[in-house]
Amino acid sequence: ELNEELSRQLDEFKKMPALYHLALKELENKVETLKTEWKMRDGYSPIEHIKSRVKEPKSILQKLERKGYALSFENIETHIHDIAGMRIVCAFVKDIYRLADHFSAREDIRVLEIKDYIAQPKPNGYQSLHVIVAVPLILLDGTKWVKAEIQLRTLAMDFWASMEHILYYKYDKQLPAHVADELKSAARAADELDKKMLRLRREILELS
Ligand code: 0O2
């Protein structure tokens, strides 16, 4: 019986990367369509760029352990939301919320959870809107809704998060206090830059 369960779990593990890749492709296609449509209609798209990735098995297992769950296929599916991950970088903060609202209104995307680290940045200064979604994959046995995490950020937020990622890993997860303070102040500077660009945009629009 144990062997049967083990072999079922192994089968599920083997299928996993392909399913998440396919779900990401479906999601990419939806977002590309939006981007093109926006460009045709308004002359510009609020989506600057898109990046997606499937989480490495090693990182999935590390995250599961960090969260305190036993290793099983069910625990991975239930508790790890970002196996399929997409990052959408936008020009302005309001574009981020516009996109999130659009996702919520669609029938071919289920919004499961929204974590608003823009309204409430993380203690280290991290800002992004995380939208956990499920997208339908039509398989031979029927429709399977596959989870994905969409991180929506402005260019300034993305710049900060990318730099923080580099610096954080360089210090092997132990940041000296003054570096952490400087990083937080850099996050505030990024936020100021976003606000300044928004003010400039308003002025420019008023000119035309
Ligand atoms: P990687 O290597 O980027 O994939 P939970 O809400 O606890 O169930 P989770 O997934 O821990 O789940 O939540 P959270 O906080 O929404 O973070 C998910 C992802 O957001 C992270 O994935 C990062 O990609 C990004 N992120 C969150 N906080 C920070 C931060 O302080 N700095 C940077 N640069 N990115 C951050 P991973 O798996 O941690 O990492």
Give a short synopsis of this structure.
With about 210 residues, the protein is an alpha+beta fold. The chain contains 6 helices and 5 strands.
Break the fold down into its secondary structure elements and pairings.
Blueprint: H1 2-42, E1 47-54, H2 57-66, H3 73-79, E2 84-90, H4 93-105, E3 110-116, E4 129-139, E5 142-154, H5 155-170, H6 177-207
Helix pairs in contact: 5-6
Bound molecules: ligand 0O2.
General description of the model:
InterPro entries: GTP_Pyrophosphokinase, NT_sf, RelA_SpoT. It holds the Pfam family RelA_SpoT. Pathway: Purine metabolism; ppGpp biosynthesis; ppGpp from GTP: step 1/2. This is RelA/SpoT domain-containing protein. It contains 6 helices and 5 strands; from the N terminus they run αβααβαβββαα. It has 208 residues and is an alpha+beta fold. The protein has a single domain, classed as Beta Polymerase, domain 2 (2-Layer Sandwich). It has a 5-stranded mixed β-sheet. Helix 5 runs antiparallel to helix 6. Bound molecules: ligand 0O2. Ligand 0O2 binds next to helix 5.
